[in-house]
Amino acid sequence: MINAHTEILFTDFLTTNLMVASIPWLGNALTKYRTKRSGYSGTYKMADEEFTRKAAEKHNKTKNLRQAATLGLAILPALTIPFALRKGMLNGSSGNNKILKWFNKNASEFDYKNSIYMSRLTALIMWLTSDYFPYQLACRDKYEYRDTVIRGTSIGLVFWGGDLFLKNTFSKFSDKVFKTNLMNKTEKRPYRLSELKNAENIEELKQLPKAILNRTRNAGVGLYALNLAIIMGTLGFGLPAGLNKLLRTKVTEDKKKINNSLLTYDRLFDLHRNFSGFRLLKHNE
């Protein structure tokens, strides 16, 4: 069973990570093929080809190195996690290696839910090595890099803890103010909607008066909708709007700097030309 689990986890890590990590690079190639332009496509309507090409020059110099780093990150979990987990489960409890002991103790955290869905810890490792950092490595200029870091970090904070924080906060507030029973006192976590629906199978819930149980179920559905609405509002609308405004501001500022530099150069050139003409005139006199 351990050998089979190791092979499955290795295959899952390798295939999934390679596919996901290739998405930003394939997207960049497709965009360049279709638009015949270089640089970050988010700036295409804000600046001309010359501006976007120059903005991407610095990143183009390290493109091959960044592609190699993307590949390395993508295959790293497949080459390490399954085999460390296997060794930890087989003899990690008896050795002195702290890493193997950790894998032995937390082996269940890598198990598949219902033998189908990857665990939260497995998904986090995959997200970091095939999504979060590879998307940054694939950025075409500083504008896209800033956008990607802010967007990826914001989404990551919400998905890897932010939603659970909101759920816990809302559930505790509801239990205190509206006298519901959303928090599982034993496990110190909110009940899932599926658990509230089948309350007769949970000792703590089936003992509740019917009025409180109905109130708890309604509150659970309401708070789920509220949590979803907040996340949709911030990540789905607020974050894109803020990033688009920031992008327009930065591109406009840089274009002004370039124009000011050109004006300064033209003035210096005119000054030099006029001065040279004046000296020539004096010499002729």
Task: For this entry, give a set of tags.
two-stranded antiparallel sheet, 1% strand, 285 residues, 2 strands, disordered C terminus, mainly alpha
Percentage of residues in strands? under 5%
What value does the Rg take, in angstroms? 29 Å
Q: Give the strand tally.
A: 2
The general outline is: flat
Derived structural class: mainly alpha
Mean residue pLDDT: 87
N- and C-termini, Cα separation: 101 Å
Task: Enumerate the strands of the largest sheet in spatial order, edge to edge or round the barrel.
Answer: 1-2
**Main β sheet profile:** 2 strands, antiparallel
SSE series: HHHHHHEEHHH
Low-confidence parts lasting 5 or more residues at pLDDT below 50?
Answer: 278-284
> Percent of residues in helical segments?
over 70%
Number of helices: 9
Entry summary:
The chain is about 80% helix and about 0% strand. It has 9 helices and 2 strands.
Describe the structure.
Helices cover 78% and strands 1% of the residues. It is an all-alpha fold and 285 residues long. It has nine helices and two strands. The longest helix has 75 residues, at 210-284. Mean pLDDT is 87; it is low at 278-284.
Itemize the secondary structure elements and their pairings:
Blueprint: H1 2-35, H2 49-60, H3 63-91, H4 98-105, H5 120-137, H6 142-177, E1 183-184, E2 189-190, H7 193-197, H8 203-206, H9 210-284
Antiparallel strand pairs: 1-2
Helix pairs in contact: 1-3, 1-5, 3-4, 3-5, 5-6, 6-9
